């Protein structure tokens, strides 16, 4: 039985901005476009353009001539398009002004075998008479479209989809009454992908559901389009829903009333009440949304739950290009957030022994075009199509575990789906735009593309530290050991993805190792010449970075992401610039100026001029020496009060002990040790007399002393506060002043409490101070405090705790790096 896919329904078929195009208009244009196609049944013709009415006319004109339509990615590069056209060899290619140049270059590489038709040059005659009023196919066994996979693991493959495959999907949607003629569907995803092609083009035209085409992809345009048109159904990929959910939830969390309403709505299951409570959100989405559908990739169930709590029917489905695309979807009213839904009619699903999802049915493709080997590999001897996804069936509900090829198998045998970790991390922060978790050197590593605007707004100088402690560490605290992130890599541009947002994971290793295969060869060869006007400043900076860090720079070099500067490096660099160019930069100047070109521009704005060059080793010395105006905390009285109050608890509850105090000599020195818990500072204070406490100064992170009360306590607890984004220079000066006064400085060089009981990286500040001021380092070892009071606990438990002071380390002729290493090694020997 054939499918009548296009006839006049006497209503609007497509809305595109201000344009309203009726079914009669679509039919007229399809008739006109046919005149440019000299093809017969089974011939292939392609279209490559942005979503617009002409893409619809092009597509149906190919079908009208009984041809096979190939909808191609409008974002293809010349090389990508050359490959796909060479593989599919279409007779014609419909393009727009935007895609014409790429198409012509690709065609030229193929000896111009394809006839290119630019839809922007086709003008429908005003008196045009149609020859045919309705269109249907000949046989459902015929190939209808060839859709090229997105190529997440290499070159794309052409999937041959029959009319029968498409019909099976449409019947599944109709049987569940998912969409009907009273709906209006939004088409925002590109038509080269099977999901939007079938469900925001073929299905609506077949069922008489008006389509609203999004003119441009942006959240502002999306909301405007929803408000101006009576859209009832939105189909999106997880990235769209993540973006919208984050925007809405940020606003809800800003208001205590909205948070209360959200909590209340989550306990009320009656959707009309939920909708009423969040009527403002519904109005923002146009006020008519009946159904939100997520597909194309796995979505975090919490996102669906958020939308449902606000009174939206949010469901997800599951499928593949090879299944045209649906395998299963949730039916409104009996949906499950943790499941992709129920298997559609005329389709069978079974789970293989290794957990892979296998499919058989009328929705499964005919095979891969021009690729018999790949087709054979996709099916087993019993005719089951192997999806490559892992899952399980719970009754009639299908649950996806992850993509077989994407699963990370750790050396300990644990299987991890990186998508789960990525979703968990990104939903709890506004500092990250994109994240990809991968295995690198047998550990989990997160590649992060930050939200640079948000970082600038928060005045964050040190990007890596901010993301490491504010984002990754918060995730690691509650994550199981095998799912913890061990390292991060910050990147300056978006991660490699398909057009619908799937990460091209096979490209991640090159990204980690700074091999970007996406860069055009001409781009790689292009060297940005330094303009004559700034060459003197560039050369001075280049010499400093080369001598100090042995790294080459160019104008686009990012001081953190390319050169690896930490907060201390930035302070040194700032002081070098101030001394060399006679200017007065402060740490906050480096919030928005992080590339060499931006820094040179900043130097010029400060009207600096070249002055006598300063030796690279003098930078921190100059900072440390100029400490006369720095104010120190007033006294240690609150530290003494707390020692008096807490001493009984340390003696009887923890059975606290200290040893090796005789290693501490009179006079200046830096006391350095491991950081285990909130108990650490109190443990140290209990080893000192009240008089000694007056001469001991702690360095602590400002993050923990934000309120006025806490700042007051720090001022009367001999605590010097460090803020890596604001006053690291002042902190260094305060620390040096303490040491010059013959007093002692207590530093936890890890910067934060241990999350797993292991020693972390030691920051080098203490070693720089010791070396420049020639004062001894006194290492100490804390034991038992991590077990007594781990990071994720709110109250300590009984456990033996102790402090052991080790023999001093003198700077002598040692380098800063040698001092850091020796101190850490001495602590490690006595700790483990």
TrEMBL record:
* Name of the protein in its database record: AMP-binding protein
- Tell me which domain of life the UniProt entry assigns to the organism this sequence originates from: Bacteria
The record's listing under SUPFAM superfamilies reads: Acetyl-CoA synthetase-like, ACP-like, Glycerol-3-phosphate (1)-acyltransferase
Record's catalysed reaction(s): a long-chain fatty acid + ATP + CoA = a long-chain fatty acyl-CoA + AMP + diphosphate
Q: Where is the Carrier domain?
A: 528-607
* SMART domains according to UniProt: PlsC (SM00563)
Known PROSITE patterns for this protein? Answer: AMP_BINDING, CARRIER
């Amino acid at each position: 039985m054939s499918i009548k896919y296009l006839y006049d329904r006497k209503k609007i078929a497509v809305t595109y901005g201000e344009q309203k195009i009726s079914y009669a208009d679509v039919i007229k244009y399809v008739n006109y476009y046919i005149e440019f196609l000299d093809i017969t049944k089974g011939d292939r013709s392609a279209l490559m353009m942005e979503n617009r009415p002409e893409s619809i006319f092009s597509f149906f004109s190919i079908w009208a001539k009984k041809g096979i339509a190939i909808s191609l990615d409008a974002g293809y590069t010349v090389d990508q398009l050359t490959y796909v056209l060479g593989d599919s060899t279409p007779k014609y290619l419909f393009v727009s002004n935007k895609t014409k140049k790429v198409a012509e270059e690709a065609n030229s590489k193929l000896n111009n075998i394809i006839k290119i038709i630019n839809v922007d040059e086709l003008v429908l005659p005003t008196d045009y008479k149609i020859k045919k009023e309705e269109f249907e196919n000949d046989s459902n066994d015929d190939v209808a479209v060839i859709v090229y996979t997105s190529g997440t693991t290499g070159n794309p493959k052409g999937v041959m989809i029959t009319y029968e495959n498409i019909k099976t999907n449409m019947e599944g949607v109709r049987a569940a009454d998912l969409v009907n003629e009273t709906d209006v569907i939004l088409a925002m995803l590109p038509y080269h992908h099977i999901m939007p092609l079938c469900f925001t083009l073929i299905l609506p035209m077949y069922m008489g559901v008006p389509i609203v085409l999004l003119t441009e992809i942006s959240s502002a345009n999306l909301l405007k389009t929803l408000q101006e048109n009576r859209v009832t159904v939105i189909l999106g990929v997880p990235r769209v829903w993540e973006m919208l959910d984050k925007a809405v939830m940020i606003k809800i969390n800003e208001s205590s009333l909205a948070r209360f309403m959200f909590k209340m709505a989550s306990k009320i299951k009656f959707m009309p009440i939920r909708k009423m409570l969040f009527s403002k959100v519904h109005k923002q989405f146009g006020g008519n949304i009946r159904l939100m559908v997520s597909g194309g990739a796995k979505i975090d169930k919490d996102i669906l739950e958020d939308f449902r709590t606000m009174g939206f029917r949010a469901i997800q489905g599951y499928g593949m290009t090879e299944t045209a695309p649906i395998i299963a979807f949730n039916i409104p009213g009996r949906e499950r957030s943790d499941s992709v839904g129920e298997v559609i009619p005329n389709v069978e699903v079974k789970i293989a022994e290794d957990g892979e999802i296998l499919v058989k049915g009328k929705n499964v493709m005919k095979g891969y075009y021009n690729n018999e080997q790949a087709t054979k590999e996709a099916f087993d001897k019993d005719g089951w199509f192997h999806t490559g996804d892992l899952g399980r069936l719970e009754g009639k509900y299908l649950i996806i575990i992850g993509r077989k090829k994407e699963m990370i198998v750790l050396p300990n045998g644990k299987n991890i789906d990186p998508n789960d970790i990525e979703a968990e991390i990104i939903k709890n922060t506004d500092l990250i735009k994109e994240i990809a978790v991968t295995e690198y050197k047998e550990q989990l590593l997160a590649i992060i593309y930050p939200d640079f605007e948000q970082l600038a707004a928060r005045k964050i100088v040190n990007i890596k530290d901010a993301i490491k402690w504010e984002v990754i560490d918060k995730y690691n605290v509650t994550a199981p050991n095998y799912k913890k992130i061990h390292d991060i890599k910050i990147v300056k541009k978006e991660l490699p993805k398909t057009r619908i947002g799937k990460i091209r994971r096979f490209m991640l290793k090159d990204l980690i190792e700074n091999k970007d295969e996406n860069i055009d060869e001409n781009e790689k060869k292009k060297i940005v010449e330094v303009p004559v006007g700034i060459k003197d400043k560039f050369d001075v900076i280049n010499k400093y970075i080369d001598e100090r860090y042995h790294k080459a720079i160019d104008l686009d070099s990012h001081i953190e992401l390319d050169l690896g500067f930490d907060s201390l490096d930035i302070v040194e660099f700032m002081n070098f610039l101030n001394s060399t160019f006679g200017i007065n930069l402060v740490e906050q100047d480096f919030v928005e100026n992080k590339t060499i070109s931006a820094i040179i521009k900043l130097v010029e704005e400060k009207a600096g001029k070249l002055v006598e060059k300063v030796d690279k080793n003098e930078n921190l010395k100059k900072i440390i020496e100029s400490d006369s105006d720095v104010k120190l905390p007033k006294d240690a009285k609150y530290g003494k009060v707390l020692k008096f109050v807490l001493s009984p608890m340390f003696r009887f509850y923890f059975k606290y002990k200290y040893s090796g105090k005789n290693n501490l000599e009179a006079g200046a020195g830096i006391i350095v040790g491991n950081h285990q818990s909130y108990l650490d500072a109190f443990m140290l204070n209990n080893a000192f007399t009240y008089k000694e406490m007056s001469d001991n100064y702690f360095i602590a992170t400002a993050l923990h002393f934000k309120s006025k009360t806490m700042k007051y306590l720090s001022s009367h607890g001999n605590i010097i506060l460090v803020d890596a984004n604001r006053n690291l220079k002042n902190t260094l000066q305060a620390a040096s002043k303490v040491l010059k006064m013959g007093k002692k400085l207590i530093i936890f060089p890890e910067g934060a409490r241990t999350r797993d009981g292991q020693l972390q990286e030691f920051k080098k500040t203490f070693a720089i101070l010791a070396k420049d001021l020639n004062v001894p380092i006194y290492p100490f070892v804390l034991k038992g405090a991590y077990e007594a009071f781990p990071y994720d606990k709110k109250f300590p438990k009984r456990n033996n705790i102790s402090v052991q002071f080790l023999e001093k380390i003198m700077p002598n002729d040692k380098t800063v790096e040698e001092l850091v290493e020796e101190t850490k090694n001495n602590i490690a020997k006595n700790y483990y």
